[in-house]
Design a protein that fits this description.
The protein has 514 residues and is mainly beta. 10% of the residues lie in helices and 35% in strands. The protein contains four helices and 40 strands.
Length: 514
């Protein structure tokens, strides 16, 4: 046998061994590519690219650990809700090395649907009703949230049955309204149509279903996906870790855009808007189940009732985000469960808060000793909003910090409600104040008249700047405040992207509308 031939034989053996290892490794992980097409698919097929499943719900029953699920982005949205729950399929989820992936490729999952004629009860005089339960925070849905559409146009929301008009609707939530406020049964939707018309003549549409895409599994990545029109939350999770959401959009949900419960989550490049509750809520549910989330490069806007963000009792970080035009607080860091003594902690870094409400760092618990929330604001800009309110007892709270921040044309600045003298638990320095005032306890220090009095009495803002310029343009990055902060850093946020950018990059594929 020649030397060359021997080497060739050995190479073949080595290659064969490597191929065997590769096949075994693939079989060991069980990772596959699975496809869904809600237009051309069939749930009787095998889920391959050539023979995709039709529904996401069926595909989830067939997935194995670390699989990748691909959705075909059709103009027809997928129908939700969808639950990626290991209680339904024990193999759902992935590993830290190889997570399960759900790639929407620009698809949308929605609960928005037409309610058929046989779902309605004729109440007489052009009024029709149907059961309409919701877990959402819809106490004031008539203030900025269009709940019901008639022939593609939003109807008129009213507060009592005598106020109903053609193409109007009335609804009271059993979760949010006492019976004394309602003149109709709770969790029942009432509509009025023009004389002689019935729901068979008019397309009546609204949201349906629970959380539109929920996860109860570990190590799952969701990307390039939009969810909308749930009667509860858009995206949600419970007691899960290793979750990643990238380039997702959630809107027109009757509770939160995204809601996590004792989960460990990383969210980036995502858009939360026009939800009836908050854009984002993150909660620690049990002392033995941590909540720890990071949000980066996100836009949270136009959420209509509770506000932009709520962080409860866990550890949270938000970086390079824009939070704007939300009713209620722009952000809340709170502790309200007596059995969770840890309290909430949050860091906001390089974030722009503009228009709408202020920031609330507080504690709801009845036990004052457990009011231990704390927050750090580093290189943030507060533009035409309510500033920061710290409602905790600083002698009991976790440390709070306001450093290198800019307050531009504020409705208020900083209010520390339970302050009794200087405290090591609050740091405020190297900030820029464009007017407004600071409140500590029952004492208000108005700027510029009482600027020096404020610094002397509180021991804060030794190196901070007081100015009168309010900056006409939105201060995404204030050039005049470069190198003015601590350690030569800039003061305020420096956001390199714009809100219109995120709508272009938040999802790949063709964008679908309501």
């Amino acid at each position: 046998m020649s030397h060359t031939h021997a080497m060739g034989t050995e190479c073949k053996k080595l290659l064969g061994g490597l191929m065997a290892l590769f096949v075994l490794g693939t079989a060991g992980t069980g990772a596959r590519e699975v496809f869904v097409d809600n237009v051309k698919g069939n749930d009787a097929w095998d889920g391959s690219e050539g023979k995709p499943y039709k529904t996401i719900q069926h595909a989830l029953l067939k997935l194995r650990t670390s699989d990748t699920l691909h959705l075909t982005p059709n103009k027809v949205p997928y129908r939700g809700p969808v639950s990626l729950d290991r209680r339904n399929n024990a193999e759902l989820g992935g590993t830290a090395e190889q997570p399960m992936v759900v790639d929407g490729h620009g698809a949308e999952i929605t609960g928005f649907r037409r309610f058929e004629a046989d779902e309605w009860k004729d109440e007489g005089n052009g009024v029709f009703s149907m059961p309409f339960g919701s877990n959402g925070w819809m106490k004031r849905h008539w203030e900025g949230f269009d709940l019901v559409y008639f022939d593609g146009k939003p109807g008129t929301s009213v507060r009592s049955k005598p106020d109903l008009v053609p193409f109007g609707y009335l609804w009271f939530s059993g979760r949010m309204h006492p019976k004394s406020e309602a003149d109709v049964p709770l969790n029942t939707l009432y509509i009025m149509l023009p004389e002689g018309q019935t729901p068979a003549d008019v397309v009546v549409e609204s949201g349906s279903g629970g959380t539109m895409f929920s996860i109860n599994a570990n190590y799952v990545t969701v990307k390039n996906l939009k969810v909308s029109w749930s009667r509860n939350d858009g995206f949600g999770s419970a007691f899960s870790k290793g979750l990643v959401y990238e380039n997702v959009e959630t809107c027109f949900n009757m509770d939160q855009g995204m809601s996590h419960h004792s989960s460990i989550v990383h969210v980036r490049h995502s858009h939360f808007h026009d939800n009836a509750g908050c854009g984002i809520v993150d909660i620690r549910m049990r002392a033995d189940a941590p909540a720890q989330s990071v949000y980066e490069h996100c836009l949270i806007e136009n959420d209509s009732y509770r506000g932009g963000i709520e962080f409860h009792d866990g550890v949270y970080t938000m970086k390079n985000c824009i939070i704007r035009n939300n009713k209620g607080p722009a952000a809340m860091v709170t502790h309200h469960m007596d059995y969770l003594p840890a309290g909430g902690e949050a860091v906001f870094e390089n974030c722009l808060f503009m228009d709408g409400g202020g920031i609330s760092v507080t504690g709801r618990t009845r036990n004052p000793k457990n009011r231990r929330s704390g927050a750090e604001f580093i290189n943030c800009t507060f533009y035409k909003n309510g500033g920061i309110g710290i409602g905790v007892d600083l002698s009991q709270s976790k440390p709070s910090k306001i450093v290198n921040c800019a307050f531009i044309d504020p409705k208020g600045v900083v209010a520390v409600k339970q302050w009794k003298g200087p405290t090591k638990n609050l740091t405020a320095d190297y900030n820029y104040y464009g007017g407004g005032s600071v409140v500590f306890g029952d004492k208000r220090y108005a700027f510029p008249e009482e600027w020096e009095d404020h610094k002397k009495a509180t021991g804060l803002d030794t190196h901070s700047l007081l100015g009168t310029e309010t900056f006409e343009d939105v201060p995404y990055c204030i050039q005049q405040l470069q190198s003015k902060g601590k350690d030569g850093m800039h003061i305020g946020a420096c956001i390199e992207w714009r809100p219109e950018d995120i709508t272009k990059e938040v999802r790949s594929g063709e964008k679908t509308s309501r």
